[in-house]
What we know:
The chain has 369 residues and is α+β, with helices and mostly antiparallel strands. The protein has 13 helices and 7 strands.
Amino acid sequence: MPRIIPEEWRKFMYLLISVSMFRLKFAVIFAHIVGWLICLGLPLLFLNGQTGSNKTTALLLSPDYLVFVLTYISLFYFHTNFLFPQLYYRKQYALYFLTVAVLLLMILVMQPFDHLFSTLSHPEHIGYVRNINPMPPPRIHVDIVSIFLFLLTIALGIAIETTHQSRQTEKRALYAETWKTQAELSFLKAQINPHFLFNTLNNIYSLAMSKHEYTADSIMKLSNMLRYVTADTRDDYVLLQREIDCIHDYIDLQKLRLSTKTKVRFSVTGNPGFKCIAPLVLLPFLENAFKYGVSNQEASDIIIALNTSPHKISFYCSNKLFTIPQETSPTGIGITNTRQRLDHLYPDKYELLIKEDNGVYAISLQLQV
C-alpha cells in the first residue's frame, strides 16, 4: 500500500469531515420536516375522528390554526436555539426552569388546541359538543392536548440539542486529531524561530571565545529548551511549571543579544501547582515581542506577566512596536496557528485579546483550567 503523505492525509480527513457534516445537516433538516408534519397534523386526526362532514379545509384556513402552528414552532426554536443552550448548558438552571414554567403558564392561558376547535365547533359538523347552559357552574378547564404538545416540544428540543452538542464535541475531536496529525511532522522546525536558534548559537560561540563565565550556563539553557521541544511536548498538555521554566530559559537566551536599551520584566504570581497547559502555546507571543519590540537605537520595555488562580491561567505580554522589514519577519508557528491550537485544545475556554495602542503591542490570554 502506498504511503499517504501528510498533505494527502489532511485533505482526506477534511473531505471525510465535510461529508459527515453534510449528512448530519441533511438528516437534521429531514427530521425537522417529518417532525413538524406529524405534530401539526395532529389536529387533523382529531377532526377526522369526529362524525359529520369533513371540516379539514376550514380548519387549515382558519386564523386559529395559524396561531396554533406559530405558537408551537416559536416555542420549539426559542427553546432549542436559545433557552436550552444559553441557560441550561451554562448552568443557569434556576433561570431556565423559571422560563419554562412561564412558557407553560402561557400555554395554559392560551389553550391553543381547545381554542382552535372551540371556534370551529358545530355539533352537526365536528361533534365537538359543548355544555350549553345559561348558568354553567364555575370550573377550571385544562387543555390536556396543549400541555401534552408543550411537553413533547420541550422534550424534542432537549433531545435534538443534546445530540447536536454531542456531534459538535465529536467534530472538535476530529478536527483536533486532524490538526495533530498534520502538525506532528513539522512541529519541531516550527516551534522555535530558526533565527533565534542561530543567533543563540552565535552568541554562545562568542561567549566561549572570550571564555565568559556564563558560557556553560547558556549551553545548558539551550539544551533544556531543545529537550523540552523535542521530548516533553508530545502530549497535548504539560505541567505549567515546565512551560514557565522554558520561558525563563528563552528570555535568558534572548538577553544575550540585547543591548542595555531593552529592559525585560518577567513576573510569575500565584501557585502553578499541578496545573497543565498546552505546550509552547505562549512562546509565539514572546517570539513576536523579542522580534518586533527590540531596537538598538531606542529604549524599550518588554513586559511579561503570568498569573495563576485556582481555575484560570492569565498571561500578558506587551512591547513597543518597531518597524521590521518584511524579509526578517518571524518564521515560528505564529499567532494565527496559535489561535487555531487554542480553538482545538481550549474550545470555549479561552479569551485572547490583541491590541495596539500608541505604538505599544499588547496580548492578553485567559485560559480556563
